[in-house]
Amino acid sequence: MQRLLSRRPKDRYHPNAERKGYRLTQDHIERMGIGTDLHRLEPGRALRLGGIEVAFDRGLRGHSDGDVVLHAVIDAICGAAGLPDIGEHFPDTDPQYKDCDSRTLVAKVVEEITELGYAVANLDVTVQAERPKLSPYKDTMRDCIAGLVGISSDRVSVKAKTNEGMDSIGRGDAIGCIAVVGLTKRG
Ligand SMILES: [Zn+2]
Q: For the chain, which residues score pLDDT lower than 50?
């Protein structure tokens, strides 16, 4: 495998590479994956998106905390690594995942791809929500997701868009997310 190395200080990526005084770039993507998810909004639940709590009068229904963003991220990572999808990994019939923090599920999947010799190179996330307005939260979400997958925030993008009043998202009944990930081989 070709390792692309860089001494540019902004390219913080691989801990071993850092120790050796050089840094891997994100340019050598071995595998790519896409993940999508959609959850219904309902009253009486906290709204968790991208690992953080967002102030809103409703939250997302789900067996876990309903974090649609982290679920899309997990499915993208699983897809890229050729692993079973989130439903097979963390079945909603399993009581141990009831109301669980989706951040722990991300950590488990990252551990699995690490064992397979992969690491996340970058993540591109689009949250689809009519309300609430997510722009005040995007940077915090980005930092949180970056921390969970072990990369710097400049390798994560979080975008937010509405569905122009159309379909379940546009009517404000649901929030969706699309995530694309690139994986690189660890050195
Ligand atoms: Zn989900």
A: 1-13, 26
